[in-house]
Design goal:
Elements lengths: L3 H14 L5 E6 L12 H8 L3 E2 L3 E3 L2 E7 L9 E5 L4 E6 L9 E7 L5 E6 L5 E5 L23 H10 L4 H5 L10 H10 L13 H20 L41 E5 L2 E5 L15
Antiparallel strand pairs: 1-7, 2-4, 3-4, 4-5, 5-9, 6-8, 7-8, 10-11
Helix pairs in contact: 1-6, 3-6, 5-6
């Protein structure tokens, strides 16, 4: 599933290609793609046609486009997008062949490239949220991410200390910190030399500070590489894959030598997925009882 860097790459593409343009037409070819818009396809299209895209914003792994209604000066409603596991927002020439899993397409009054929502597995989706321009209410429960200038490191550390859980579980808890998924959690933990099972109640402020710095570093490195792509499903708005998978230090490297100490990387089962770590650099903590 796309994590913060991949979604941010898409957001930047939308900012370049879509912001400032007025929606002229909306075509929904697969209503599952707008299942979160409970009023249906006709209402979805009516809410969008004639609106101008004001900005492209992100909270964690969620995107939204604030919309300015005809005759208005400021945005009010918003078009929400969640990419799920395979969703793609592509900017394509109107005459380009239809993608096999094209579900929604948007044309603009300037007659230029159109925006398409393509989703092979249909876990992602779009919706219009009334009054959601500043922060859609459906995203209010999602915490800020480490790249957000308003993210508070000290408050995050205090929240970690209050939780009776493991540090990797905490990193994946979107109510604590957003945007970090399985890949970048493993990478941040490797860079900070922390085992994912370390109890959060035992973390010092210095360890939390290093962990956040590592998370920021790895996500900024991924952004510079265009994100991480393990298959053809994650692409930017121009259909290009990211290359950060070539720079991973832990994730997906079972049996390969640690880039720091040469000990073979280990893989263990974790929450119905895999965790990767160096058993030498990231020592398993003493046995402790922690919650979920």
């Amino acid at each position: 599933m796309p994590e913060l860097p991949e979604v941010e790459v898409v957001r930047r593409g939308l900012e370049t290609w879509v912001v400032g343009r007025t929606i002229a037409r909306v075509e929904v070819t697969h209503e599952r793609a707008i299942r979160r818009h409970l009023a249906g396809a006709a209402d979805f299209a009516d809410a969008l046609v004639g609106t101008r895209v004001h900005a492209a914003r992100r909270r964690g792994k969620y995107l939204w486009l604030p919309l300015v209604a005809p005759g208005a000066d400021e945005p009010d409603d918003a078009l929400l997008a969640h990419l799920g596991m395979s969703g793609q927002l592509l900017v394509q020439p109107a005459e380009a062949p239809r993608e096999k899993h094209l579900h929604v397409r948007f044309g603009f009054t300037d007659g230029g490239r159109e925006l398409r929502f393509v989703d092979q597995r249909t876990f992602g989706g779009l919706a219009v949220e009334r009054g959601g321009a500043e922060l859609p209410p459906s995203m209010a429960h999602i915490a800020r991410d480490p790249l957000d200038p308003l993210f508070d490191d000290t408050l995050f550390h205090a929240a970690l200390r209050r939780r009776n859980t493991e540090v990797k579980r905490a990193l994946l808890d979107q109510s604590l910190v957003s945007g970090i998924g399985n890949i970048y959690a493993d990478e941040a933990l490797w860079r900070s030399r922390l085992h994912g099972a370390r109890p959060t109640g035992r973390l010092t402020l210095a360890q939390t500070t290093l962990l956040l710095a590592s998370a920021r570093d790895v996500m900024n490195d991924a952004l510079a590489a265009g994100g991480t792509s393990f298959d053809s499903l994650y692409v930017n708005v121009n259909g290009e894959s990211g290359y950060f998978s070539r720079g991973l230090d832990a994730y997906g490297r079972e049996g390969e030598p640690c880039n720091r100490c040469a000990t073979p990387i280990r893989r263990i089962s974790f929450m119905n997925r895999s965790s990767y770590f160096c058993p030498s650099c990231q020592r398993t903590p003493r046995r402790a009882t922690v919650g979920a």
